[in-house]
Fold this sequence. Notes:
The structure holds 2 protein chains of 2 kinds. By secondary structure, chain A is α/β, with parallel strands linked by helices. Helix content of chain A is 27%, strand content 27%. Chain A has a 9-stranded mixed sheet with strand order 9-8-7-10-6-1-4-5-11, with helices on both faces. A 5-stranded parallel sheet of chain A has the order 14-13-15-16-17. In chain A, helix 3 (70-83) packs across helix 4 (94-107) and helix 5 runs parallel beside helix 8. The N and C termini of chain A lie far apart (51 Å). Chain B has helices spanning 37-53, 68-77, 95-106, 128-136, 189-195, 205-208, 245-255, and strands spanning 2-7, 9-11, 33-35, 56-62, 81-85, 113-117, 140-150, 153-160, 163-170, 173-177, 200-203, 222-229, 237-240. In chain B, strands 9-8-7-10-6-1-4-5-11 form a 9-stranded mixed sheet, with helices on both faces.
Amino acid sequence: MATILVLADHTAGTVTKATTEVLTLARRLGSPTAVALGPGAQAAADTLVQFGADDVLIAPEEELLTWLVTPKVAALQAAAALTAPSAILLASTAEGKEIAGRLAVRLGSGVITDAVDVAADLTATQSVFGGDTTVHSRVTRGTAIITVRPNAVTAESSPGAGRLADLAVVLTDADRRVRIVEHADAVTAGRPDLAEARIVVSGGRGVGSAEGFTVIERLADTLGAAVGASRAATDAGWYPHQYQVGQTGKTVSPQVYIASGISGAIQHRAGMQTSKVIIVVNKDPEAPIFELADLGIVGDLFTVVPQLTEEVERRRG
Amino acid sequence: MKIAVCIKQVPDTWSEKRLSPSDATLDRAAAEGVLNELDEYAIEEALRLKEGHGGEVTVVTMGPERAADTIRKALSMGADAGLHLCDEALHGSDACATSDALARILAGRGFDLVIFGCESTDARMSVIPAMVAERLDWPQATFAAEVQVAAGVLTVRRQTEAGVDTVTANLPAVVSVVEKINEPRYPSFKGIMAAKKKPVETLSLADTGIEAATVGLAAAWSAVTDFAARPPRAQGEIMSDDGDGGRRIADYLVTNRLI
């Protein structure tokens, strides 16, 4: 069976949800070989096998995490030389896409980013222009290098053969040019990552102020959801920019998206309209976001949202 | 310091975008072309570095004739010169070909720093800065929320979903910037007038030594097999809040096993 190489994202052995999704997808395309790097790679192997890795190539050297991006490119290049894979899959994170791009140059291969699915013949499905258009495409030269958008595939555990082997990675001077001198994990206020969250609660212009966002945050925390914001809200400085959902911010595709006080300009819709279920709360019955709503409440978010929060808390007792 | 800023003309962020039925490339005629918003931050950062360190800022674009408008806008913000790779054979180039063409026109011009916006609002791949760095054999310090240069060493605060990294590299280097690294300036009237006199060099493929057979749609390293407009979402139930709107939502979430 054809080898599908998967780069494992992990922090000290804890594998990201996005990587378990990529492995789940890789199982449908061939025999997954995971590549785990740096301290914790050995610990990560358990999860990687649980989600389908038939083989895990391990390079535990700390130096691989000392330099930005390029050591991971070198590791995948070495793994590709060893296994002659039919495809190389990575999670579509900022770093995953950069690794994919540089690897494409080194291997002389095409690259497709942000796939939401990949078929057995390696045709990738992408949802572009904010979900307005669905595109099927294929890498036509070299090995298919494809990054997979978080949350597009549901991770399912199904243990692989789980053979572990060492991977020798030789870094060149060119791989040692950008030193990571300090790292701080994303400050998440204990909430799930916006791109990976199962539920996203978002606020927009109707929230009216930074203080208004406490209502949004309370609902999010009750639901175990991530908080998002429209561009109007981030531009006004009511909520930090990194939580912006939309054309110039994050694209999210959660099970449930709750939009409060958001009118639904194309700019915003482009970032959320592929959500499975969309719930809208807005005072203005003419707001275009209602066109996307599976359930819409025309009303004041400052009464509806707190009531929803209390109701969810009450039902949970 | 010699700085290049790579910019791109994209369809207006607030417009509907679509693919051309004939060749599955972006239908650029369907919407007004504007300077990619995220590139404005790249231009602003370059201007600030020039103000702090001296030097000059060259804006570089690859695109059809009308992409010259974006160069003009960057010049009116304060950039010194423009470089426009413009050739019909480039139409439909993918990330592999685009990064190759950009690297070829950037190489050998003595730039210390090449700055990009971290993403275009049309393709949204975010791979070109890294791929150009790979082709130039330069370090990349991308997704910068802060850029500092001192004694030939670049320090960048890199902001991604994985957190914040402080990274350092020697010049020359490739940088991409995230939104809100700065507040881009508006072109002043004086700037707009001055821009008309600034030099813009237009290059064809023949001028650059790039073979036409290696770029464009036919030479792309990936190909669209088909595409379709996503069917519009069916609108669900819309109701006025009669004092129980929040409970209605809770009912819906529970009934549909969403919570």
